[in-house]
């Protein structure tokens, strides 16, 4: 064994490492050969061997536990970890390929060191207690940019479809809203519109309902174009609760335009169509005849639509002219729809206005 001492230090360390990996208990007994052996065996076992090797020497670790823990708290000691090796190779490869200067290799760490990135990281790991603490202590002048990793807290919570994260952010909102500066931050820094649109598209009726209830306190103006996009997405979700919530955002009497109602008829959902009836200036029966199927038409009639009532046709050459629902059915050319309307008492008026 003493012949090993004649080898170079690097080779000597490698041989001791392999001895420890093969039989740590037997190698530990070889410390009596000399002090050099003893020091290298102990250093390799405590600092450079993976956990599965160290576990084979409980009698050693028991007496060296404090030293072992200190070493492992300050360095990654499992040198055989394949994932660690892969990550290191990948990082080296990227640095070579991108020819990143040494001074610029820390740019990511610097750019992602803002307060909001700590919040994003905590949310990504679902560390609710940490999220709560960070949000509660976040300065009001915190800049929430279009960050490189993650998104603003409200959008992240909604996109994750996670009730816990959503609760933390909404609790934070309820505290911010108490001051004018906090209200401005909620309105301008948290991408409320994006979060609401995502909530509608993911079909989370609870998120949509709470955001709608919060909107008046936020004093947030929703443009009609944005409202129509949200309502159209709510209709596509086929969730009547979401449709009802979105309708509450419009203060106008005309909450549903002909285009929106036509899309509702195309879904084939009588529940959705019934929810939208009497909410706008569109003629529901005409839209149902043009774009819906017989159950949709029947639902509109059952809701009280006049089967022989006059409907304005804005697409006609002369605005203001009217026609009957049956005439619209003839234009559609669907025999089954025509027969259904006739069976419900539809007639063609003797004279057009």
Automatic annotation (TrEMBL):
Domain of life: Eukaryota
Protein name in UniProt: Uncharacterized protein
